[in-house]
Amino acid sequence: MADAGEIAGALVAAELAMLDAQCRGDIDAVVVHLATGFEEIGSSGQRYDRAGVLHALHGSQLEAACATDFRVRPLDATHALVTFHVSLRQAGRERHSLRSSLWRNEAGVWRIVFHQGTPCDAGAAGAVGYASTTSMPGEHRRMNTVYVRTSSTAVVSLVFGVLTWVMLPLIGALVAIICGHIARGEIRRAAPGTLDGDGMAIAGLVLGYVHLAFLVLALMVVFFILGGVAFFASHF
């Protein structure tokens, strides 16, 4: 039988996996964590069943998610309560909420039975004591756990930066440069520590700009040679 620390680690990982799935728009990866009789009271106060939550998740992909101040409190042999603070970015807006999930062990698999989210200010977690160093008996905490998403635009910039040198001259460089600048802008605007990929974007920019520089240099050499040939042909 897993000890309390292992259970805490597994449940925190599961909560982060669901945030990851919502950022990727992977609803199926959320479904596997929900019990058959799952219920949720959303931050708006509306009550959802399992089917209602899945319907609401369609078309509501997150741009970034940051989860901090986890508390995992075993209630009995098969139930545990997880509370944490979440910062979400969606459609350019940032929202904060305090969340609680009641997990149940079903034949060795942990699934959520009930979930509730309450809107709050960015500093509310510390205000209600979530950031303190003391714990209740039997409680395990994971502090400052942050889900970091990699910018897909940065990945595209790096991929086309490489391709421009092997099979897509000029076009690949232009795509790498454009996507690289877009990705760096996205990363700067995202909540701190929630969006990664700046290194890939820079690499894509370097590959793209260096390729353009070589193309310009090659064209100058060609024009110089053609100009020299034309000069000698007209004078000799």
Count of domains: 2
Outline type: elongated
What's the end-to-end separation, in Å?
94 Å
Structural class label: alpha+beta
Which spans have pLDDT < 50 for at least 5 consecutive residues?
Answer: 125-147
Radius of gyration computed on alpha carbons: 26 Å
Task: Spell the H/E element sequence.
Answer: HHEEHEEEEHEEHHEH
- Number of helical runs? 7
- Estimate the mean pLDDT confidence: 81
Q: Strands of the largest sheet, in order across it?
A: 2-1-6-5-4-3-7
User: How much β-strand is present in the residues?
Assistant: 25-35%
User: What is the helix content?
Assistant: 40-55%
Explain the overall architecture.
The chain is an alpha+beta fold. The chain has 2 domains: 4-147, Nuclear Transport Factor 2, Chain: A (Roll), CATH 3.10.450; 150-235. The chain has helices at residues 4-24, 28-31, 50-57, 124-127, 152-166, 171-189, 198-235, and strands at residues 34-41, 47-49, 64-74, 79-90, 93-106, 109-119, 140-142, 149-150, 195-196. Strand 5 and strand 6 form a beta hairpin. The longest helix has 38 residues, at 198-235. Residues 125-147 have low confidence and may be disordered.
